[in-house]
User: Fold HpcH/HpaI aldolase/citrate lyase family protein from Streptomyces marokkonensis.
Amino acid sequence: MRHFGHIAPAVRKRLFFREPAEFTPGSPARLLSAALGATLYSPATRPRLADDVVKQGGRGVVSMVLCLEDSINDADVSAGEENLVRQFADLAGRPGADLPLLFIRVRVPEQIPDLAHRLGPAVRLLSGFVLPKFTAERGLPFLEALTTAEAETGHRLFAMPVLESPELLYRESRVETLEGIFRAVDKYRDRVLALRLGVTDFCSSYGLRRGPDMTAYDIQVVASVISDVVNMLGRADGTGFTVTGPVWEYFRVQERMFKPLLRQSPFHEVQAVALREKLIEHAMDGLLREISLDRANGLLGKTCIHPSHVLPVHALSVVSHEEYSDAQDIVRPERDGGGVLRSAYTNKMNEVKPHRAWAERTLLRAEVFGVANEDVGFVELLAAGLAD
Assistant:
């Protein structure tokens, strides 16, 4: 699989200076964690789930979570498990299908080895499990169960803990909770693919819900948690993990209080005014702003609940030609001693030592999402994806 692989080769050649690389479920964890992109959630009870997975894979989705937790009724868990077993068997019978990385979101640790066993040979299609309301106390049994399932099946399985518990939100317990989470995931570092932020649960603790004109970063009590999670769990010194962005809840706006957040000029320049209007109609201007803020705050990838959110996440994850040029200049072997240099675009200073971690992360993102051609921006990427 590859990002933008659903777009015609001739179009990709026009868009990309360096095309996204191919990867598989067996690729190194570091590469997969960066490649998750827009992780699309789907209830595990959907009767045509296998068809949905194949369809979304063909439309550019590279990671999906099949959910047995908050997205389904408590009374439907057993039926959801049975449906997953049937649907995985269906997918296993479709050789050559373009499947995304598949994860199952469970409720309790016991579900992990049980489901891995019940999937039988189809477990080879499973990349791992999403672990809800993760803290050190509640999370370790999940990680132990994952290790057991991996040993019993002989198949590599990853964990994606969801950070969404009240203990993490409340100021008086936050640091202790984060320290415990770090100890737990550090112990199982080779099996933790990414940490996911459950911002909806954070808002719930205070009876809040952000509107389509607001990003998660406008809700200060939520923004403070994101900041502390990145501070303690997302460091670039080798101790950190990939932390993914929070879910965007909206896909159509009935009424607006504030002006749209998208500038007009980038759309006029490429004759895509109708695209701008469509994005605004479907609340995508707020989503695009939040994706930009995610990346500025150290997050990579995003939880998504609607297929229309996938392309914006991926389009804004593509590395610009300018970013790529700066990053390459910074990591050149002859720069190992440090120093300051003017960027090739002659518009900024690149200071080698302070900017090196940024450059390394940028080059990893470039590998999986590609590098845009010099004259290509996010509007062209969006337009090409929507036209396909």
